[in-house]
What does this fold into?
Amino acid sequence: MSKLGTLSAKLHRGEVGYDFVKNRKIWYGISVLITITAVVGLVVRGLNMGIEFQGGAVFTTPKHMTTTVSQAETYAEDASGHDAIVQKLGDGSLRIQIAGIDTDKSDQIKEALSKDLKVDPERINADLVGPSWGEQIANKAWEGLAIFMILVVIYLAIAFEWRMALAALVALIHDITITTGIYALVGFEVTPGTVIGLLTILGYSLYDTVVVFDSLKEQTKGITKQTRWTYSDVANQSINGTLMRSINTTVVALLPVAGLLFIGGGLLGAGMLNDISLSLFVGLAAGAYSSIFIATPLVADLKEREPQMKALRKRVLAKRAQAAQGTPEDPAPGRAAGPDEPEDAAPAVVGPRDQSASRGRGRGRTSGKRR
Amino acid sequence: MAAPKKGRSAGAQSKPWRSLVLILIAIVALTGGMFASGNTTPRLGIDLAGGTSITLRAVPERGQESAINKANMDTAVSIMERRVNGLGVSEAEVQTQGNDNIIVNIPKGTNSQQAREQVGTTAKLYFRPVLATDISGVAATPSPGTSASASPSSSPSGKAGDDNGTSGGEKATSTGSATPSATGSPQGRAVTDGLKADATPSAGSTASGSPKASASPSASATAGSDSGGDVPAALQAQYATLDCTKKDVRATAGKGVKPSEPTVACGQNSQGQWQKYILGPAAVDGTDVKKAQAVFNTQTAAGWTVTMEFTSKGAKKFADITGKLAQNTTPQNQFAIVLDGNVVSDPYVSQALTGGNAEITGRFSQEEAQSLANMLSYGALPLTFREDSVTTVTAALGSDQLRAGLIAGAIGLALVVVYLLVFYKGLSVIAIPSLLVSAILTYTIMSLLGPAIGFALNLPAVCGAIVAIGITADSFIVFFERIRDGIREGRSLRPAVERAWPRARRTILVSDFVSFLAAAVLFVVTVGKVQGFAFTLGLTTLLDVVVVFLFTKPLMTILARRKFFAQGHKWSGLDPKSLGAKPPLRRTRRPSGPAAGPVETKEA
It folds into this structure.
């Protein structure tokens, strides 16, 4: 079996045991690097703002135009007196963008264009945008973003705890920075559709993070009452435990978006569908990454600073050192439903232990000991 | 921790059929409602159906930022609705969005340019003296009698004695307090002095004495000089052929006429008959109205009336014109309130109204009074509207986009189904119908929301629905993974399901809440396209919870009793062996037990 096949089989069995928390420094580093690149890209290259943000007009002609791009460009520039950008779309229609014209002037331009291109003016799609419209959309989006962040932090602080809220917020900002950075670096056009996609990432990125946190919260209940696992261990187990789900969710979320991207890019050439799905695609990938590699290790980091957790860590380490000297004991105590326990007893012995243990089995440290 | 939850879930387990029946009833009811109401498809937005969508933004006058409030915006919307629908566009919709935006959606098949011009320009409200009026269309021919009466006698206007006033066509037969209009103009409504104390009496008194304010007389002078002291012949002819019962005639009557020139116009009287007018030059501007409101007059038993308050400049002009009009006989003692070329009211005046306040009485219903007050106050709105975006989508592109959206959705759904089949094998029997139920509910609710709250499916909304496939599928994944965890821990299926549910339920609720929060914030804060997206996302998130609770979970409970799943058939997606469950516990399960042993040893 190929390596990938083994991995997927392991994933399927819930056996993957990568120590995300232990190696967090690497991931932090990578993220910081990506974020810096993104910020540099934003500062140096800036975003390629679409016509909606500058004000102007976009005319789309019917399909199967015979006019060449350069010809249409000349027509458009003659008609408007401004620079025009003309694209030929997949279905043979022309997309003519003219920046910086007023909405009331555009009617004349449309008339002139329809005459030059020999198309009925009623068959030309026009998108006229005043100079402040895009700005308004963007401002409202920022406003929404701010309100959402505040609400979500409050909610997470109540439902979980402030550390998780903080970590989720960091992950969220991380995702958005990366996505916008990629837009700046690649030079994709930013349109209201992009903004929509970006805003959706908010929900999605957190959605993913929240699922990991939920499992983490569940498993760390009563963590101080045992001496086997440190908080970081449990956090790691949570990530591994929800890894299958995270991957499945991300794939399942990306599949329809991929469909959108394919159709939006392939059939329509450009437009709302394409813009939304592109930013979603980038953002979803970043979101899945951040909830696994950034958010949870960050919570573990923050948690480990608590005196209680410090004490726990000490106890755990002491116990491990002791165990290493003495007889190796079964490293998976969570499997209380051990070999000789009858099956029906299992539901009664529920609790955080069992699950963590089943995850723990795969982890390098424990399994290493066992081997 | 497990105990109480287990108890709860046991309750749910016992009645899985009940939930299934419940959701079935819901589906049948929604589908039935959809067919019964005749809305079998969701209402399509402009970008999918074709048409023009205009976003206007209210810009307050300097120092009047508080003018952007709900009342003012509603007034503006109702006026705009009137204007657009006056074009013969019956389905144009005008609505506010956010704080300061007005969206005008004009479906395809109408002259989008004309509509844009209508919406883009600010409303023009004028008070013009009536020179002649007649019921239109009834006799189909212009009534010569009326126009004759309108023709001038050129007698100098008595009171004002102003040379401009002489030619105005206002007959100076100062029969001030006559009770006219009974026959000539059935809709005549009296304007009396505001019953309230006069706010600015000085304005009135100076006005009556001083030479005429510029607005009215100068214009009438033009009229006079052009055609020998009366209404121009061209206008007479226009008036003669004017048939106000025709919609397109009404729409064009008096268009493009400067306020300083006389014009023809149409209006509907209280009997619902169309009436045509020759109107003198505008005497008072809409902007001269400071405030107008509908009040129920309890003191004079006049019923619903509309009170107007003028600005100091307006009060002067109004006193002037009413002073002049009051001396005329009907119909020339009437002034017409003209909104966008249409006469919305034509009250008669019996005396000069000098107080800066006026009251229009008549047999108004509350609604009529309200609507008249609205129109009057529109002119007073300290707002102008700027076109922020205009999108014209041809029907061809609209249907292309719709098709593309549907194909994208179908591909997305198919990919998800394939993925579920591969990874969850037999469990797809639960997942796929759950997705279908979700899809049916979404579709029917969207269809019903069209007429109910004016929901229109636009392209971003389609995107939202497609993205939501992921969110919905995720809920099943969370649940299934929890069950699999249970099986890996060595439980048999039924306990695993019942134990997995409370935990999965919490995860689903928490994550859906976050998703819903995002949608809700977006919906409230943003405008336009983003809002449509947020709406679908929120709706589908809610439906996701409903489907998981009422469909997926009960179905899982029922199917867990089936041998195929309970015994962990290879294709059930719950095969303990392939999930890597711990062997000792499985010893009781004969089929998979022996085979699993070696695998496990290899792993450990």
